[in-house]
Each structure stands twice: as C-alpha cells, then as structure tokens.
Amino acid sequence: MNAIEVENLTKEFRIYHRERSVKSAILKVLVWQLPRLERFVTLENVSFAIPRGQTVGVVGKNGQGKSTLLSLLARIYRPTSGRITVRGRIASLLELGAGFQPDFTGYENIYLNGVIYGFTRRELDEKLESIADFAGITDHLTQQIKHYSSGMKARLGFSIAVHVEPDILLIDEVLAVGDAEFQERCYAKIEEFKARGVTIFVVSHDARAIARVCDRVLWISNHKLHMDGPTDAVLAAYAAEEQRSGGAEE
Amino acid sequence: MNDLPSYSGGFTVVGGVRETPLESLREIWRYRPLIGELVRRDLKVRYKNRVGGILWSLAAPLMQVLTIHLMIKFFLTQVNGYSGYLMAVMFLWQFFQNCILDASNSMLNNAALTRKIYFPRAVLPIVTLLTNTIHFGISFLFILVYLFIVPISDPIYPKNLHPEALLVIPVLAGVATFSLGLGYLLAYLNTLYEDVRFLTITTMGLFFYAVPILYPIERVAARPGIYEIYMLNPMATWLVAFQRALLPPIAVEGAPPVTMPWAFMGIAALLSLAILAFGFIIFERSKWTMMERL
What we know:
The structure holds two protein chains of two kinds. By secondary structure, chain A is of the alpha/beta class. Chain A has two domains: 2-88 and 167-249, P-loop containing nucleotide triphosphate hydrolases (Rossmann fold), CATH 3.40.50; 101-164, no CATH class. Chain A is built from eight helices and nine strands. A six-stranded mixed β-sheet of chain A has the order 5-6-7-3-8-9, with helices on both faces. The model of chain A has no long low-confidence stretch (mean pLDDT 85). Chain B has helices spanning 21-30, 32-46, 50-75, 82-109, 111-114, 123-149, 168-192, 196-207, 217-221, 226-230, 234-246, 262-285, 287-293, and one strand at 10-14. Chain B is mainly α. Chains A and B meet through strand 1, helix 1, strand 4 and helix 3 of A and strand 1, helix 2, helix 5 and helix 13 of B.
C-alpha cells in the first residue's frame, strides 16, 4: 500500500499584476486596462509513489519547487492539474514556529496545534508532559511564545509534530536548527518512527542529513523530477552536478 | 487505518476539481472541535484581563448611546424614554459591525496558521461569528439590567416584559446569517485588495444613518413609499424587530406606531439566507487561490 501517490502533478502559480487596492482597480477599469496575468510553473508533471514506511529525501536548488511540493502534500495549495493521494494522518513541519500564536503560552499553543491535528483536549492532557519533556522547555510552558528563542520554538514545533502520532511526517529544513544535542534527539526520533513504519518526507539542502536518514532520494531540478532512486546514487549524481555548476561559476 | 479521532486521516486532491458546497459543509461539521478551540483562543485574547476586558468592550457602544441620547435630548424633538430603545439597537448594531469586520480580517489574521497546516478555511469566519455572539450575550445582559432600572421612577421592565421578548433569538440568528454571508464575501475581497477594510468601515458609517438608531422607526413609517424601501435593508428590519421584541412601539406625534414587522422579517430572512449562500459559495470557490495571495 502506498502512503503517498503523486500522479502527473503540475503546479502553476498565477501572479496577477493586479492593483492591490479597490481604488486603483476601479481607475484601471475606467481606462480599460485589464490585469496582466503571469503564469509561473513551479512543478511540472511530477509523478512518484512512496510505499508505507519509506523515508524519502528531496534535494534540489532553491526556487525549483521543493517547498511547493511539500506544501502541496500538506494541502496548503491545490494542484493545477494531476492527482495527489495521501493515506493516513499527515503532520508537517513546514515553517518552524509558524502556526504558533505569539501571545499564547507554550501550553496553550500545544492545545491549539494538537486540536488542529485531530486530537481531543483529553488526549492532549495525557501527551502534554511528554511533549514538554521532549522539547526540553518544561520550565517555560507558562511563558508566552513571543518570549521564546527561535531554537525553543523549533523544538516545541518538532515535539508537537512527532507527538501527534503521524502516519506521514513532512519535514522542511528542520533538522538544521537547534543545538547538536537536540538534533541528535530528532534523529533518534526519526529512527524510532522508521522502525514503527512511519513514512517520512524530508526536504533539505543538507545532503549529509539526507544521506543519514533517507532510503530514497528525489532530485528536483528545473521544476521537474530529474532523478529518483536510492540515496547513494542520487546524492552522488547531485554532488557531481553541484561541483560542475560551482566550477562553471568561477 | 488508525483509531484516533482522525479528521486528517488521508485525502485525495485532483487538480481542477472542486468539492461541492455540501461536501465542504460536511467537512466543516467534522472540524467542530477545532472551531471550539479557536473560539476559546479568541475569547482568551479578548478577555485577557478578565473583568476589565469586558467592561472596556462595553465602553464604546455606551459612549455612543450617551452622546446620541444627549444630542436627542437637547437638539432634536424629544421622545420619552428613548435611551432604552437606543441601548437595544446600538448593541445589536455593534454586534453586526464587529462580526463583519472580524470575519473580513479572519483570513489575514490567521495566515500564520493556514500557511502551515490544513483545515477547512471556511471555519475562520464562523469562529469570529461565534466569538462575537458570546460577547453579545454579555452585552445583552447589560441591556436587560438597564431596562429594569431606567427610568428610575418607573422602569420600562418588568411591566413591558412579554413572552415576545423570546423573538430576540430568531432575530439574532437572522443578523448572524446576514453578517456571516457578508463576512465570507469581505474575507475573500480582503485578500485581494488592501483597502477593503477601510471601505467597509466607511460604508458601515454611512449605513448607520440608514438604520433606525438615531431616530425612532415611526418617523420613517410616517413616509409611506420610503418606509418600504428602507425596510428592504435586512439590517433595518432586524433592528426594528429586535427593538419591538423587547419594547413597545414609541408614541411619536403624527406617525403610526410600528409593531412587529412580520412581512419585512420574512423578506429579510430570505435575503440573509441568499447572501449567506452567495458569500459561502464565493469563498469556497476561491479558498485555494486566497492561500496563494496571503
């Protein structure tokens, strides 16, 4: 059974060079100027299927569609064409600390996020201690999130996401934050998830992080799926390409 | 697949295919716990310093009531005991205004949440509506207390308290329907244009004169022809109905008393439902493109 199936996925953003205010929009209509429409394809005809329990990494340069792919899987955006099927509860770490209410305490934010992931307050009462423990911020739970350091926010976000018992975990550039000790705990948690059969989808610039956890790598280049295969083979090809383009620039 | 209360247990999205409004409604219904949690959050933010917060939010409409009361008393022809009438409609108008402004900002205010995680976006205006309804409940107690003690020599209540007062509930539902529909429309427009909020406030300021707050509705009823057009505005009808549920018609010289406007209430109910359906469908059609513009 596949956890994620993506068939002929295309995502095109439409950028309207349209007026940002009603006033200028009316003026433009009066002088008969229609909004200019620019299409920008971020992903083109991407297809892949991920069986349950596989850990898949995504590599590629900035602005080539990696993060868009993750947002599409998290259902933040909807595909322009193609089909995405996701089976199971999905938890995402898209932007660390996003989704937190700055005026709320850590404790209140755990409840808010937990309920969005589909838990009842009672279930969260039971998890509360372990979430705080894992994040290592037990002493700060009654403080407002706006007084947290970015590292603390990252740890709390990661801790909530791993405690919602996801079947699928989406991770975007997250493993690069926090101190070495917290990173080690994240890796340990990822290993634990892999052992439990959770499907993990990691986007990162850091080839080493990907090499460490992933079974398979998708390389996105020029908004297309350039290569899809076992970690070693794809990362070797990616490193070679990096070196070539790096050399060309010099 | 798992036995958790999983409303995020998987999905299929197909490019270019929309859910029907019925499917969207079903999904919103499944997300009830989230609505509860977000309402709790909004109330907490609003009443951060408990009692002070509640009193403070009553201050603005009360100041308006006081100003208008004094203005009527000194400059316009006086109507006996008008402050009670004023109090009732002013708080309902305030409720309407807050509902619309909060709903129209809901997509922008929750961008940090919606950019990270999926949930049906249409719950956000519902959350602001529920929060404001709870808040209105508190103000309503205040109105009742006022009617029981003013004027001190001969209070309006309990002698004018009738079972019809229960009509405030369907009237409130009517206002909620109307404002939720407008809220969906404005929430959508607000992600497109940045001056929508400003235009909304200005328009509300103008419509303040087209509803029976500054003057008793009897004065409008004295002008047949104008009255019928005037009452086609659902908010005008809801305000009159709310006032009549709580208070008897006002005796105004040369004007007929206005009783419960049943026929206009039927029209207002239909219009409110139509606007809700229209607003919801527009919002649902553009919920994904809105995300790309946030």
